[in-house]
Amino acid sequence: MRPEIFEMFPGLRGRVEWTTLGEYPTPVERLAGVCASEGLDALYIKRDDLSSPFYGGNKVRKLEFVLADARAGGHQQLITFGAVGSNHVLATVVHGERLGMRTIAVLMPQPNAAYVRKNLLLDHVHGASFVITGSPLAQPVGLVKAMVQGFDRGTGKLPYVIPPGGSNVLGTLGYVDAALELKRQVDGGLLPEPEFLFVTYGSGSTAAGLILGTALAGLRTQVVSVRVVDKVACNRYLLARHVNAAAGFINRYGEGGVARAVHPRDLFLMDDFSGPTYAKFTPEGMAAVSLADSCDGIKLEGTYTGKTFAGALAFLRGHGLGHRPALFWNTYNSADLTGEIKDLDYHVLPPELHRYFEEPTQD
Question: Does some domain include residue 67?
Fold first, then answer.
């Protein structure tokens, strides 16, 4: 199925590249167990964890636009960025490999966790190479090293650079389209129109695309972005910039685009659930992970989706809104790839990464 955004804005067809990576529409379900446990009436989940059997989650919709653009430019090497356990990095590695492209991952430290070990080994299995930096401030140096490593002397072509989280205009378009998919599911009676939509706010384009897309779809839904990254990289001003960049692009090239800019003060951002630092698990987040699993068999994690789900529950209970229809957008991956690394020794990784297998995890 081609993106619905091309139907709404036909001018984008000849300007924006796209390729199929996922399986849509992703399901929507009522969280019956959580509703019964928490005294809620109509809390639903959007199952983007099921977006691909190869590796799901929210990155797939972004990469359908971003990787298509890379392929159209003749690139065989990709560079992207993230913490050592980055789900975005792994998604790029897996889906880039499917399209015949190799990923160089520029990585920075993070608190240790079991998923960090799993993701690093899966990165290796799917052909990634690594440039390891000591902090976010060192990532520009890491980019230079990755550029040198990935330079194709035969063609003179540099690698295609994908920003952290795949968050640029193309990535945002993936979630504008997701909101149009949601509108079709609402119109089809699969769920009531949500009054609130809770989504993780990390690198920004998932939340930005849903904010812009729900408005374009005519949904009256209030998107509630739950911050999971430090404020310097995750705030209302940066989120508004993502929304407005995509709106400007649609209005410029979409033939009759009517996307409206937003002001930072108009955005609904929850700031209370990120924890002391990026990827540090919180008691509230891990309680939400446990609740989703025990009540409805939904697998979340402690860095992003657990904190977001905790924020959603606190908001609905704290404001007496448990009877209102609401939607939690699951951005995690639920495809189980652990069989691919069952017998893999971590010593295949660069020595700088071995400590994540030798030091305790926070799980």
Answer: no
Please report, for the domain that includes residue 113, its CATH number: 3.40.50.1100
Instruction: Give CA–CA dist 86/275, Å, rounded.
Output: 18
Does position 358 have pLDDT exceeding 90, yes or no?
A: yes
Distance CA 203, CA 218 (A): 25
Which two three-digit tokens encode residue 234? Answer: 């995750």
Whole-number pLDDT of residue 2: 81
Grade residue 255 by pLDDT with cuts at 50, 70 and 90: confident
Question: How many domains does the chain fold into?
Answer: 2
Residue 146's domain comprises 76-158
Which pLDDT score is estimated for 257?
73
Answer yes or no: do 239 and 316 share one domain. Answer: yes
pLDDT digits (tens, 9 = 90+) for 74-99: 999 999 999 999 999 999 999 999 99
Element (H, E) at 200: strand 196-201
Same domain, 90 and 153: yes
Question: Are 178 and 152 within one domain?
Answer: no
> 3-class DSSP state for residue 294?
helix
- Are the CB atoms for 295 and 33 separated by under 8 Å? yes
**What is the overall mean pLDDT for the chain?**
97
> What are the residues whose beta carbons fall under 8 Å from the beta carbon of 149, sequence distance 6 or more?
104, 129, 131
Cβ neighbours of residue 237 under 8 Å, at least 6 residues apart? 264
CA nearest to 45, candidates 317, 326, 324:
326
User: Does the pTM exceed 0.85?
Assistant: yes
43 lies in the same domain as 150: no
